[in-house]
Amino acid sequence: MKMTVRVALVFSFFAAAAASAAPAWVSDQFEITLRTGPSTSNSIQLMLDSGLRLEVLERDADTGYSRVRTPGGTEGWVLSRYLMNEPSAREQLQKLSSQLTSANSRGSSLDSQMKAVTAEYDSANRKIKELERAKAAVEKELAEIKRTAANVLAIDKQNKTLMDQLAAAQIRADTLDQENRQLSSQTTRYWFVAGALVLLVGIILGIWLPRVRWQRRSRYDRF
């Protein structure tokens, strides 16, 4: 019975110890003193935060201090071992994080610009297609107009040819009419001349036949 109680107490102790052993990390926040001189006996002017950029004016290797100037223009002494030649990893990480955030922001902006450019490109393509369709329609209409104009020109040329033929036929008709009139006039003259000749022959015969008869009677009377 006592042994069981002891074992239970041991397990309870280890369980409590395990429960109280939570993980922890040393804070990266750090401050150093800016003193009026290169020793701990000099008074403190400021407390400088970790990562603050300082301008080194002088280094004292014997005391291990360096004379520096803060961004605000305050000069003083700090332990040289607390100074680094480059920003701390935390500062660099913050800077990189800021750059990454800025890059992501620029990336988002570029994505927005790319989307806008893509939208404009698609809109331009649609407009180009519409213009191409309009151009095709205009070209088709122009071809129809050219075909109609060619037909009109051909018809006009044919009309001119027919008009020329009609004018030539009219001239021929006028010429034939004039010739017909001339022929009619000549025929009338011919008939007039023929009638006159017939009349003249009749007159001559009328004069000559009685004489011939008289002469024949005269001859018969002689015998």
Properties at a glance:
three-stranded antiparallel β-sheet, 2 helices, 223 residues, 5 strands, 69% helix, rod-shaped, SH3 type barrels, single chain, alpha+beta
Number of helices: 2
In sequence order, what are the helices and strands, one letter per element?
HEEEEEH
| CATH architecture assignment name of one domain | Roll
Mean model confidence by pLDDT? 76
And the CATH topology of one domain? SH3 type barrels
Kindly name the structural category. alpha+beta
- Percentage of residues assigned to helices: 55-70%
How much of the sequence is in beta strands? 5-15%
CATH class of one domain: Mainly Beta
**Number of DSSP strand runs:** 5
The Rg value, from CA coordinates, equals 71 Å
Reported for the largest beta sheet, the result is: 3 strands, antiparallel
Strand order of the largest sheet: 3-4-5
CATH homolog superfamily of one domain? SH3 Domains
Span of the ends, CA to CA: 227 Å
Shape designation: rod-shaped
Question: What is the fold's blueprint, element by element?
Answer:
Elements: H1 2-20, E1 31-35, E2 44-49, E3 55-60, E4 65-69, E5 75-79, H2 89-222
Antiparallel strand pairs: 1-2, 3-4, 4-5
